[in-house]
């Protein structure tokens, strides 16, 4: 036996080696996961909260900032809130409103007395300068990651300027909006200084984009105050609130809230408007809660006007410096009307449908709901009084233009997404933006009217048509045969009508043109016309008329205009789907489907006269055969009347017909009424062709009503209804055929294009 045998090492089994390796790798994996978890915990511990400084300058901006402050405060794991108070919050004359911030349980980190008294332009400038002197120390001490500023006040401009120069990120609320005073310039200046934006409306967002702001740094949040406004606003104690401010005898909806501020770009005029407003309110004789104006230049003079008129002692008035926001919205919500130029009127009041009268230019350009009536040129006591008569006691649909009640959650999410490591430098782009739309009382006091032009084969007619569909004045001339003469006559007649409209107290809002043939209404171009109107193809009607009259111009086919006239003034009013068929010299019409006019892809829809009802019928003016127009138009009936006359088969006993007069469709109809079987057969065939064509329309678009218009309508109504009842599908046999009551459908339809769109005035 080998002496070394006892020391021989035996190799381990392969399975044991694999197990050892497995245990090693598992141990390594656990260590790796443990280190990863420790690293994540360390990262979470190192991640500091976002330090947000909210700066408020007055009672108005606090109503927008308070919901955000509450939201920030309720998430202490994400944010640290610092509150800076300055401006009119700290002035006794304006209610020392910083106290309501303390009452809302917010810790005020800094109070800055920044207002230089004087309430004139110089004092405003000095106040900005004083704020700029005091703010750097506060910002250096607080070291916020982001400063939240609101709106368009001069105090906010000082805040944004100081923060931008000290490389503090700025979130600007309510940028991109448009109004009519120096506030616009201040607001846009703050937007240019701000790094992030929380805006209220889609249009404001577009304005910011058009001002070159980076779209990725713009949040469409809605107005934060709407988060409170859209909570159930009919509080059980709302009557207690009303009575505490206005007295025990005041009822809901039977009082006015008045709030008028100076316009710093035209102080004297705004003071005059303020006096006229007070006079109108005194005359109107309703209980009125009137708030003192803000601290802008001119406010002292406005208070003097108030005191000269004895408003503070007047039994109908209650003059106050400040009302807590929660109570103020109750008072606005249940008011019979709000009057003045406060942004609350054009913004928050819309959430309740409260009627508002906006005086002067301070809010010009703001987006508004239909509850706002503008009196921009508030130059007389009577005009403001008339506006009160129009608005007081009305209720309008609630508007959510400025928010849906979820602004604060969006803003908090936006704040969390801010990367403090990204560069502060902004990027820019240049998209377009639309203008705001609203109404003005001048357009209500005057008779809002349209110029209607009807280009017929024989006559050229122009009319002044008012909003109710009344033709105030009408002009008619033979239609010239050449393009140049026709355009010259159109412009002359329109200019004559424009001059007459002034004396008739009619405000012309635009021009509507009805013409035969195929029309592109989008471009205002006649693509090609009927044979009755010569030299009338590829004609741009909109440009020369608009350039000459400086008015918007709408152009459409005469059949479509007849349908529009019925929709606005006739049997089609309130009917969602109907068809109008014109039975005159030719056959035309229009189709209204879901309240909209059907034009078709090449503007050839509703050529109802050229629906074929026979393969071998008489030749039509369009070049085809068997069209409705070839059977049932006035020209077709005239043709058949001449044939009967030439064969001496038209005249019957008792029929008065002079040898020299031309034969017309009227002779055929008269002969049929007097028992002429040949004439009656022609009319029956024509009515059957028209009825079959209308059945085709019923089977394709299934309207709920058919309106016959034109000189032959009464002749065709009964037989067409009979044809439908005999030949149409059962589901449409009971659809009514009615005759139009409108005397001038082409003119009224042309006018309706103007009156439906131009009353939504653009400023």
From TrEMBL:
<dbReference type="Pfam" id="PF02350">
    <property type="entry name" value="Epimerase_2"/>
</dbReference>
<dbReference type="Pfam" id="PF00480">
    <property type="entry name" value="ROK"/>
</dbReference>
<feature type="active site">
    <location>
        <position position="558"/>
    </location>
</feature>
<keyword id="KW-0963">Cytoplasm</keyword>
<dbReference type="InterPro" id="IPR020004">
    <property type="entry name" value="UDP-GlcNAc_Epase"/>
</dbReference>
<dbReference type="GO" id="GO:0006047">
    <property type="term" value="P:UDP-N-acetylglucosamine metabolic process"/>
</dbReference>
<feature type="binding site">
    <location>
        <position position="622"/>
    </location>
    <ligand>
        <name>Zn(2+)</name>
    </ligand>
</feature>
<keyword id="KW-0418">Kinase</keyword>
<keyword id="KW-0511">Multifunctional enzyme</keyword>
<dbReference type="GO" id="GO:0008761">
    <property type="term" value="F:UDP-N-acetylglucosamine 2-epimerase activity"/>
</dbReference>
<keyword id="KW-0378">Hydrolase</keyword>
<dbReference type="InterPro" id="IPR003331">
    <property type="entry name" value="UDP_GlcNAc_Epimerase_2_dom"/>
</dbReference>
<feature type="binding site">
    <location>
        <position position="627"/>
    </location>
    <ligand>
        <name>Zn(2+)</name>
    </ligand>
</feature>
<dbReference type="GO" id="GO:0005829">
    <property type="term" value="C:cytosol"/>
</dbReference>
<keyword id="KW-0021">Allosteric enzyme</keyword>
<feature type="binding site">
    <location>
        <position position="610"/>
    </location>
    <ligand>
        <name>Zn(2+)</name>
    </ligand>
</feature>
<keyword id="KW-0547">Nucleotide-binding</keyword>
<feature type="binding site">
    <location>
        <position position="518"/>
    </location>
    <ligand>
        <name>an N-acyl-D-mannosamine</name>
    </ligand>
</feature>
<protein>
    <recommendedName>
        <fullName>Bifunctional UDP-N-acetylglucosamine 2-epimerase/N-acetylmannosamine kinase</fullName>
        <ecNumber>2.7.1.60</ecNumber>
        <ecNumber>3.2.1.183</ecNumber>
    </recommendedName>
</protein>
<dbReference type="InterPro" id="IPR043129">
    <property type="entry name" value="ATPase_NBD"/>
</dbReference>
<comment type="similarity">
    <text>In the N-terminal section; belongs to the UDP-N-acetylglucosamine 2-epimerase family.</text>
</comment>
<keyword id="KW-0067">ATP-binding</keyword>
<keyword id="KW-0479">Metal-binding</keyword>
<dbReference type="GO" id="GO:0009384">
    <property type="term" value="F:N-acylmannosamine kinase activity"/>
</dbReference>
<keyword id="KW-0862">Zinc</keyword>
<dbReference type="GO" id="GO:0004553">
    <property type="term" value="F:hydrolase activity, hydrolyzing O-glycosyl compounds"/>
</dbReference>
<feature type="binding site">
    <location>
        <position position="607"/>
    </location>
    <ligand>
        <name>an N-acyl-D-mannosamine</name>
    </ligand>
</feature>
<keyword id="KW-0808">Transferase</keyword>
<comment type="pathway">
    <text>Amino-sugar metabolism; N-acetylneuraminate biosynthesis.</text>
</comment>
<dbReference type="GO" id="GO:0046872">
    <property type="term" value="F:metal ion binding"/>
</dbReference>
<dbReference type="InterPro" id="IPR000600">
    <property type="entry name" value="ROK"/>
</dbReference>
<feature type="binding site">
    <location>
        <position position="629"/>
    </location>
    <ligand>
        <name>an N-acyl-D-mannosamine</name>
    </ligand>
</feature>
<feature type="binding site">
    <location>
        <position position="558"/>
    </location>
    <ligand>
        <name>an N-acyl-D-mannosamine</name>
    </ligand>
</feature>
<keyword id="KW-0597">Phosphoprotein</keyword>
<dbReference type="GO" id="GO:0005524">
    <property type="term" value="F:ATP binding"/>
</dbReference>
<feature type="binding site">
    <location>
        <position position="610"/>
    </location>
    <ligand>
        <name>an N-acyl-D-mannosamine</name>
    </ligand>
</feature>
<feature type="binding site">
    <location>
        <position position="530"/>
    </location>
    <ligand>
        <name>an N-acyl-D-mannosamine</name>
    </ligand>
</feature>
<feature type="domain" description="UDP-N-acetylglucosamine 2-epimerase">
    <location>
        <begin position="77"/>
        <end position="415"/>
    </location>
</feature>
<feature type="binding site">
    <location>
        <position position="620"/>
    </location>
    <ligand>
        <name>Zn(2+)</name>
    </ligand>
</feature>
<comment type="similarity">
    <text>In the C-terminal section; belongs to the ROK (NagC/XylR) family.</text>
</comment>
<comment type="subunit">
    <text>Homodimer. Homotetramer. Homohexamer. The hexameric form exhibits both enzyme activities, whereas the dimeric form only catalyzes the phosphorylation of N-acyl-D-mannosamine.</text>
</comment>
């Amino acid at each position: 036996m080998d002496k070394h045998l006892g020391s021989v090492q035996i190799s381990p089994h392969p399975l044991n080696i694999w197990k050892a390796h497995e245990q090693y790798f598992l141990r390594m994996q656990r260590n790796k996961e443990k280190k990863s978890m420790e690293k994540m915990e360390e990262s979470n511990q190192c991640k500091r909260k976002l330090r947000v400084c909210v700066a408020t300058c007055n009672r108005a901006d606090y109503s927008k900032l308070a919901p955000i402050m509450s939201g920030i405060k309720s998430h202490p794991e994400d944010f640290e809130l610092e509150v800076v108070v300055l401006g009119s919050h700290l002035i006794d004359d304006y209610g020392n409103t910083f106290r309501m911030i303390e009452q809302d349980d917010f810790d005020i980190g800094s109070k800055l007395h920044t207002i230089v008294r004087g309430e004139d332009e110089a004092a405003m400038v000095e106040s900005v300068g004083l704020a700029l002197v005091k703010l750097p120390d506060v910002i250096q001490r607080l070291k916020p990651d982001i400063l939240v500023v609101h709106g368009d006040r001069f105090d906010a401009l000082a805040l944004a300027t100081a923060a931008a120069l000290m490389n503090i990120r700025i979130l600007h609320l309510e940028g991109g909006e448009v109004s009519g005073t120096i506030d616009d310039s201040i607001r846009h200046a703050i937007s240019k200084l701000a790094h992030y934006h929380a805006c209220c409306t889609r249009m404001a967002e577009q304005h910011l984009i058009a001002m070159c702001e980076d779209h990725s740094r713009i949040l469409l949040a809605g107005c934060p105050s709407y988060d409170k406004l859209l909570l159930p606003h009919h509080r059980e104690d709302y009557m207690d609130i009303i009575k505490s401010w206005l007295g025990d005898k005041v009822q809901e909806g039977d009082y006015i809230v008045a709030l008028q501020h100076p316009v710093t770009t035209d102080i004297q005029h705004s003071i005059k408007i303020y006096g006229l407003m007070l006079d109108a309110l005194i005359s109107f004789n309703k209980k009125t809660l009137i708030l003192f104006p803000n601290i802008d230049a001119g406010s002292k003079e406005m208070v003097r006007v108030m005191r000269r008129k004895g408003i503070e002692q007047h039994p109908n008035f209650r003059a106050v410096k400040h009302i807590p926001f929660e109570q103020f919205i109750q008072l606005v919500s249940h008011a019979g009307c709000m009057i003045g130029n406060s942004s609350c009127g054009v913004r928050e009041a819309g959430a309740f449908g409260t009627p508002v009268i906006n005086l002067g230019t301070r809010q010009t350009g703001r987006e508004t709901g239909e509850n706002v009536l503008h009196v921009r040129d508030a130059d007389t006591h009577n005009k403001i009084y008339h506006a009160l008569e129009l608005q007081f006691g009305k209720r309008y649909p609630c508007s959510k233009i400025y928010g849906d009640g979820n602004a604060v959650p969006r803003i908090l999410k936006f704040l969390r997404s801010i990367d403090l490591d990204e560069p502060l430098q902004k990027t820019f782009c240049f998209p377009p933006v639309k203008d705001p739309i609203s109404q003005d009382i001048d357009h209500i006091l005057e008779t809002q009217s349209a110029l209607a032009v009807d280009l017929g084969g024989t006559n050229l007619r122009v009319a002044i048509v008012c909003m109710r569909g009344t033709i105030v004045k009408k002009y008619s001339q033979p239609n010239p045969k050449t393009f140049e003469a026709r355009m010259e006559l159109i412009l002359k007649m329109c200019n004559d009508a424009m001059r007459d409209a002034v004396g008739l107290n009619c405000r012309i809002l635009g021009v509507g043109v009805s013409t035969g043939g195929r029309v592109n209404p989008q471009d205002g171009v006649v693509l090609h016309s009927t044979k009755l109107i010569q030299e009338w193809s590829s004609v741009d009607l909109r440009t020369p008329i608009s350039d000459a009259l400086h008015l918007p111009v709408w152009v459409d086919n005469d059949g479509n205009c007849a349908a529009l006239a019925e929709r606005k003034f006739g049997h089609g009013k309130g009917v969602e789907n109907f068809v109008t068929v014109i039975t005159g010299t030719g056959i035309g019409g229009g189709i209204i489907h879901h309240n909209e006019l059907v034009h078709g892809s090449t503007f050839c829809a509703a050529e109802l006269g050229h629906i074929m009802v026979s393969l071998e019928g008489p030749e039509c003016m369009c070049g085809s055969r068997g069209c409705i127009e070839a059977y049932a138009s006035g020209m077709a009936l005239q043709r058949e009347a001449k044939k009967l006359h030439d064969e001496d088969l038209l005249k019957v006993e008792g029929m008065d017909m002079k040898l020299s007069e031309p034969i017309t469709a009227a002779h055929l109809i008269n002969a049929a009424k007097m028992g002429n079987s040949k004439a009656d057969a022609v009319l029956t065939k024509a009515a059957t062709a028209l009825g079959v064509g209308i059945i085709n329309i019923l089977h394709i678009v299934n309207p709920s009503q058919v309106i016959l218009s034109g000189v032959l309508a009464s002749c065709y109504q009964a037989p067409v209804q009979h044809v439908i009842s005999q030949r149409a599908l059962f589901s449409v046999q009971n659809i009514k055929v009615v005759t139009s009551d409108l005397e001038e459908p082409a003119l009224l339809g042309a006018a309706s294009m103007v009156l439906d769109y131009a009353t939504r005035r653009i400023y």
